[in-house]
Prior knowledge:
The chain is of the alpha+beta class and about 130 residues long. The chain has one domain. It is about 30% helix and about 30% strand. Strands 1-2-7-6-5-3-4 form a 7-stranded mixed β-sheet, with helices on both faces. Strand 6 and strand 7 (about 105-110) form a beta hairpin.
Amino acid sequence: MALEMIAQTVKNQVKFKYVLFDAWFSSVENIRTIKQKHKKDVICPIKSNRKVAISLADKKAGNWQVVSTLEIEAQTELEIYLEGVEFPLKLVKQVFTNEDEIIGILYLISSDTTLSLDQITTIYQRLRSGGSLP
């Protein structure tokens, strides 16, 4: 259903650059279709058990790691390959403390690898809260 809505939006010539969705919809099929067929970029969280390669060489060799096992600092970005996706993605690791003082980790990906950590998190937060981009 979600891909049908995106296809209709593109067909209707609505101007947009990013498709934002939650981890529930972050399937390989959705990411690939949005980027390759509809020529739009995605920004979405992924679950911590998703497998990634941290270089093209690792991807080609089948050296996949569970994203939560990556040794990357909080508030950092890394170009990665998600298992099943042909093109590179930008991975951002956010660490935050919620209202209950519980520390959480959010792994965001973007198919627009030119975006910085700040740009990815700003776009994600702005659109998630119902805002729009300038």
